[in-house]
Fold:
Amino acid sequence: IAYNVSADVKNFAIPGLLKKFDIKNANGKLTVDTKQLQFKGTGNVNGATASQADIIYKFTPEEGLDTFINVEATAPMESLPRFGYPALSYAKGALGVKADVKQGAEKEFSSATIDLTNTALDVKSIGWKKPDKEPATLTLKAEKQNEVLRVTEFQLEGKDAKASGSATLSKDLSDFEQLQ
Structure:
């Protein structure tokens, strides 16, 4: 059986979509065919407000990856756990995120540019304190496998900080195991 169904959706809401996403106030195009489900549009996902999103879920994974996300969003710090990251005790406020994420049951690959302007930070492990509304940007590429998050490259730029390198985070993602 072959099928291809497409619908324009307005104020669409689905809690627990694919056991990953709580969607509210979504507006855009939802397409389902024999290979995948795709949403292109805007909305609130897991507490983050997406101004632009292209989300694909493949019914049969490709090289172990089934979820593909390209998004521009504003994410309050408290929304991070809903995306598989810890609440970061050293950060308060919201992140401006442009991200490309590929996820599977066993692995995740991502690249992102994160605007930290609306985030207050007090990262004692690297000795950096940034007040809210002070511009700063973090660009990174990361991979998560076997519950270990490795930032393969990052670049941080702010008023009182400039750093680049790579890092491995602890299993609970609360601190750095290795920073180079």
In short: The chain has no helices and 13 strands.
